[in-house]
Amino acid sequence: MTAARPVPARDSGTPADRVPGETGPWRPAPGPVVCVGETMAALAPDPPAPLVNAAQLRLSVAGAESNVAMYLADHGIPVAWLSALGDDPLGHRVRTTVAAAGVDVAHVRTDPRRPTGLLVKDPGPAGTRVRYYRRGSAASALGPEALDSAPLRTASLLHLTGITPALSESCRELVTRALAAEPGARPYAVSFDVNHRAALWPDGTAPAVLRALADRADIVFVGLDEAQGLWGGDLTPEGVRAQLPRPRILVVKDGATAATAFSDEGVHTVPTPRTTVVEAVGAGDAFAAGFLAGLLRGESTTNALRLGHVTAASALQVTGDHGPLPGPRETEALLALSTREWSERAAVPPCT
Questions:
Q1: Residue 335 contacts by C-beta under 8 Å, 6 or more apart in sequence?
Q2: Cα angle vertex 148, ends 40, 64, to 5°?
Q3: How far apart (Å, rounded) are the C-alpha atoms in residues 80 and 72?
C-alpha cells in the first residue's frame, strides 16, 4: 500500500488528537481510514448503450464504500475495506479488484452460504439506470460486530453511506451503533455519504432515518437534488445545513454547478470544473474520497473541495466507477490555481 503523505496533527476535538496550543479548523486526525459497506459485481454495456441494444457487457465491480477506499488509496491514504462476499467467482473478482487498487481487504469476510450481489447498468438518454440483484447477499448479513474488526482499533476515520442501513435490519444496526456516541467521544471520526437509493427504501422511512443518521456524523456528503428529494424540494445549500446542523463539516454537492462546505471556518463554495462525462455513476464516491484525502493531508477546505472535483472528474470520464487520477504535478497545479483561474474552468460560469 502506498504510504500517505505526512501531515501535521490537527485539532480533532478529542483529547487524543489535540495538539496543545494549536488553533485552526477541525480536521480528522491523520491516520488510516476504514470504509464499511457492500460491493457487488457490475455488468455494463461496453461501449455505453441502452442495455436492450448492447452487443456486449463488461464485468467490473461497484460499491460506494469500496469506490471511496480505492480513490483514497490512489491519493496515498492508508485504507481498509470491511465487508462480506460470497464464496463464488464474483466475490473473488471483487476482492481481487479492490485489493489491486491498494486497499487492505484482509478483514473482508467470505460467506459460504450467501452470494455476492450483482448490479447491471442500463445507460440511456436520461442517464444511467442501475438494476440491483442483491437481496440476501453476503453483505446484507453484516451487523454491528463488524465494528469490532482490527482495522478500526487504529482508524482515524470510518466512512459509511446511507446504502448500508437500507440493506437489512442488521446493517442498520451496524450504522446506528457506529454513530451512537457523540462526535468527539468516538475513537475515530465518522464520515457519512447520504447516498439515497430510493429502490432500497420502499416503506417511505428514508427521509427520517437518513436525516437522523447523517446528523450524528462528523462529516456528511449529500447532493442538493438528493436533499431536495428527501427533505424538501425548495431547499438551498443553506437550507440543507439547517436540516443537518450538527456535523462538523457538511458538503452539499450541486451537480455540475458547485460544491459547498459548511464548517467552523464558515462557508466555502467551489465551482465544478468542465469535464467530459461518459457516465455519472461513481462520481459522488470519487468526490467524497478526494475531499476526505484533502482533509487528511491538511489541505484548506477550498483545496479539499477542489480535490473532490478533480477526483470526481476521473470517475466521470470512464464507464466504470474507478478511473485514473491525474498525475501529482497536474493535481498540485490545479490546487494552486487562483480563484479566478479555477472559475474560468467552471462548467457553469459564475454570475456577474
A1: 299, 303, 306, 307
A2: 25
A3: 10
**Which cell goes with 340?**
479566478
Catalytic residue among 17, 74, 111, 285: 285
- What pTM value is reported for the model? 0.89
Query: CA triplet 187, 164, 320: central angle to 5 degrees?
Result: 110
Residues of the chain under the 70 pLDDT cut = 1-23, 278-281, 317-321, 347-352
Using the 8-state DSSP alphabet, how is residue 320 labeled? S
Model pLDDT for residues 262-272, shown as the tens digit of each residue: 999 999 999 99
**Distance in angstroms (rounded) separating the CA atoms of residues 153 and 170:** 21
Q: Does the annotation count 17 as an active-site position?
A: no
Exposure class string for 278-307: b at 16+ Cβ within 10 A, else e:
bbebbbbbbbbbbbbbbbbbbbebbbbbbb
Q: Which residue, 320, 334, 329, 220, is CA-closest to 273?
A: 334
Q: Could you give the C-alpha distances from 99 to 44, 69, 111, 153, 320, in angstroms and in order?
A: 21, 10, 18, 21, 17
The alpha helices in the chain, defined as continuous H runs, are: 64-74, 89-100, 169-178, 206-214, 224-231, 237-243, 283-296, 301-316, 328-335, 339-344
CB atoms closer than 10 angstroms to residue 55: 8
For residue 219, the SS3 value is: strand
Decide: 65 and 35 in contact? Cβ < 8 Å. yes
Q: What is the pLDDT of residues 319-338, one digit of tens each?
A: 666 778 888 999 899 999 99
Name the 3-class secondary structure at 119: strand
Which cell goes with 120? 447491471
